[in-house]
């Protein structure tokens, strides 16, 4: 299939749709001032209620990414009470972040106590057992960064948990839990790959999002 | 971008003509475009076809929704077969219909399935090429020949059996009393062409009622469709994106259309996120072409959005005279029209007429411009122009068209422009969306034009 984007020029896209898409990205990622500016500059209708919560969500997200899980939990309870109760997986992940924080600060006794009190109860359910074991194993190392579970200490992992938390909060406020933009980019890539499968069989390179953007 | 129609103006401003005319064309299309139906659907079957049924062997009820076997089952060529009056529609995710076995008769040799137009109407669906059928007496699936494959349970009096086509997975599926019993891949090679929902009865006293959707189904079709859509969604969700692609796309959107203030907010916020977002050079976003003249473009967009066309023209003459040099260009035309519209908006009708005579009259009779000119002028005819058929001109969106045109024209004057018209017209985001729409259309085409039509709105709503 031809990559030449000029062939797609005839397809009509509604301006309002484009603006909604951009707006959904901004709301999802808590760009409060940007949302306000965007709405003013383009005349797009701003979805109600999302502004005040954005600030709070942003703080919660940042706490989680920085590893300050306790603060994140506290703020979440304020903004969306019962959310964590309904979302055991998420609750566990957040608690484990705190555990990791303690381990990294070399507060091993505290970490152990915390694990026994807060994480232990999750161990009654099978699916948490492996996770629990991984986390507890960190205690066995003097330098947990060098352990096989080092990824649990990484920014990526914290970001993952923070993303899940963000999605859960959005869902709780009846907002979509992912941005339209992401979904559309994914869809485009998937469909495009599907289309170029035949091309690939003929020796052409598979579709690459980067290349498309460069083109 | 076809500009074959116009041969007005000089040939010097070839670039100008291309871009400006593109926006003009979009504006014309906008007024002509009605709301297309969300679900353009071909007709669905509503009743049984009494004309081509195997008349000697069965009788169809007056309401054409049930059939009864009237012959004596002597051999394999006296099956009472009847098709629906129309073939299964293809422009949707799933097609489905059901039968209720009123009476399984002496041998319970009932069948439900799909057959092509030319099916031999004395044979069970599935016994001949280009047909498939799920038979009640043995629970087997027949597909094109006399030997059936194990498929599902048998069925008899009192059972409700359904047959469907899933265009997304390209499968047939059958249900019994509300539950799917099996699926069958729909080979593109056989069973080509329109497929008719078909039922058959073959022993004394067999009687079957059919439901083409006029009554609720025993099978939860809506739930099934929802699940199929979920499956699609999930396979898309799993796909991981390179980091910060979305960020880059949003940023280049803001840059492209000159939303400078918003961009500054965005950049500031991005710096303070944890982790800070890296500007997406590594993702291949080339912002060179669209950074050009950001402040000027922002100013002009604001002026036009506020309806201050004179000021906009003034600024353009000062900063980019080459864009407004040719008074017959599409860009100038759009600006003049907008000025006219603004005068009508505030009720300064006399002034509007004067202005129209001065600046718009020259466009009458020129093919590309004629429609818009006529629409503008006809605004004068109405006491409440906003409610007229040309009321769209008074909307914000019309100002946006002009703003977008000017934006693109300024971008095109960039002396370091790499790729001429291409990057000026659309932001990455739009290119992506166009690509998506075009791909989905193409994909449907490849599956024989079957399946749901892609609508961006539907995707946005699902989110």
From TrEMBL, chain A:
- Tell me the protein's name: Glucose-induced degradation protein 8-like protein
Q: Write down the PROSITE patterns for this protein, in alphabetical order.
A: CTLH, LISH
Do you know which SMART domains this protein is assigned to?
CRA (SM00757), CTLH (SM00668), LisH (SM00667)
Question: Which residues fall in a coiled-coil region?
Answer: none
The organism sits in which domain of life?
Eukaryota
Q: Which organism is this entry from?
A: Pyrus ussuriensis x Pyrus communis
The opening ranks of the lineage are: Eukaryota, Viridiplantae, Streptophyta, Embryophyta, Tracheophyta
* Sequence ranges assigned to domain CTLH in this UniProt record: 66-110
From TrEMBL, chain B:
Write down the PROSITE patterns for this protein, in alphabetical order: B302_SPRY, CTLH, LISH
* Pfam families noted in UniProt: CTLH, SPRY
SUPFAM superfamilies with a match to the protein in the record: Concanavalin A-like lectins/glucanases (SSF49899)
Query: Which superkingdom does the taxonomy of this entry point to?
Result: Eukaryota
Where would I find the B30.2/SPRY domain in this sequence? 26-217
Q: Where is the CTLH domain?
A: 293-351
Which protein is depicted?
Ran-binding protein 10-like
């Amino acid at each position: 299939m031809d990559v030449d984007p000029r062939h797609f020029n005839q397809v009509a896209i509604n301006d309002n749709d484009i603006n909604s898409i951009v707006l959904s990205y901004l709301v999802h990622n808590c760009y409060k001032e940007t949302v306000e500016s965007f709405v003013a500059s383009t005349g797009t209708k701003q979805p109600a209620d999302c502004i005040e919560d954005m600030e709070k969500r942003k703080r919660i997200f940042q706490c989680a990414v920085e590893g300050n899980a306790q603060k994140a939990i506290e703020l979440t309870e304020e903004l969306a009470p019962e959310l964590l109760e309904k979302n055991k997986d998420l609750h566990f992940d957040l608690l484990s972040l705190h555990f990791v924080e303690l381990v990294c600060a070399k507060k091993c006794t505290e970490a152990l106590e915390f694990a026994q009190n807060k994480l232990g109860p999750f161990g009654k359910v099978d699916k948490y057992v492996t996770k629990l074991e991984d986390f507890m194993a960190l205690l066995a190392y003097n330098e947990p960064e060098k352990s096989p579970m080092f990824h649990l200490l990484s920014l990526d992992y914290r970001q993952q948990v923070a993303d899940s938390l963000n999605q859960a909060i959005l869902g709780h406020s009846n907002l979509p839990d992912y941005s339209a933009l992401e979904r559309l980019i994914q869809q485009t890539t998937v469909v495009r790959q599907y289309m170029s499968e035949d091309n690939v069989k003929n020796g052409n390179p598979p579709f690459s999002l980067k290349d498309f953007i460069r083109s | 971008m076809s500009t074959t129609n116009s041969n007005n103006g000089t040939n010097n401003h070839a670039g100008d003509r291309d871009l400006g005319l593109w926006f003009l064309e979009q504006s014309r299309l906008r007024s002509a475009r009605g709301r297309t139906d969300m679900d353009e659907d071909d007709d669905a079957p509503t009743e049984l076809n009494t004309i081509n049924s195997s008349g000697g062997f069965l009788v169809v009820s007056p309401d054409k929704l049930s059939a009864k076997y009237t012959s004596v089952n002597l051999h394999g060529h006296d099956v009472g077969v009847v098709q629906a009056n129309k073939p299964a529609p293809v422009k949707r995710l799933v097609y489905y219909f059901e039968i209720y076995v009123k009476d399984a008769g002496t041998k319970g040799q009932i069948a439900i399935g799909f057959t092509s137009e030319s099916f031999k109407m004395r044979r069970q669906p599935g016994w001949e090429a280009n047909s498939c059928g799920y038979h009640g007496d043995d629970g087997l699936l027949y597909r094109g020949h006399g030997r059936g494959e194990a498929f599902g349970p048998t069925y008899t009096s009192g059972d409700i059996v359904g047959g469907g086509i899933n265009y997304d997975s390209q499968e047939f599926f059958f249900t019994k009393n509300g539950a799917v019993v099996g699926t069958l891949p729909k080979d593109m090679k056989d069973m080509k062409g329109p497929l008719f929902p078909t039922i058959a009865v073959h022993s004394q006293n067999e009687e079957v009622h059919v439901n083409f959707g006029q009554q609720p189904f025993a099978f939860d079709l809506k739930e099934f469709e929802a699940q199929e859509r979920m499956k699609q969604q999930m396979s898309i969700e799993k796909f991981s994106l390179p980091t910060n692609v979305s960020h880059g796309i949003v940023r280049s959107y803001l840059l492209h259309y000159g939303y400078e203030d918003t961009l500054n907010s965005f950049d500031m916020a991005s710096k303070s996120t944890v982790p800070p977002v890296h500007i997406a050079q590594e993702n291949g976003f080339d912002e060179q072409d669209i950074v050009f003249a950001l402040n000027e473009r922002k100013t002009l967009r604001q002026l036009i959005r506020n309806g201050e066309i004179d000021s906009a023209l003034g600024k353009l003459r000062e900063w980019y005279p080459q864009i407004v040099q040719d008074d017959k260009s599409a860009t100038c035309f759009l600006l003049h029209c907008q000025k006219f519209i603004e005068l009508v908006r505030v009720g300064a009708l006399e002034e509007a007429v004067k202005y129209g005579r001065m600046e718009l009259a020259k466009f009458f009779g020129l093919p590309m411009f004629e429609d818009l000119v006529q629409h503008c002028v006809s605004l004068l005819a109405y006491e409440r122009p906003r409610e007229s058929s040309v009321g769209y001109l008074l909307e914000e969106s019309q100002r946006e068209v002009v703003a977008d045109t000017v934006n693109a024209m300024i971008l095109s004057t960039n002396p370091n422009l790499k790729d001429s018209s291409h990057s000026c017209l659309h932001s990455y985001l739009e290119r992506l969306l166009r690509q998506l729409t075009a791909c989905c259309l193409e994909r449907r085409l490849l599956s024989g034009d079957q399946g749901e039509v892609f609508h961006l709105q539907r995707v946005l709503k699902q989110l």
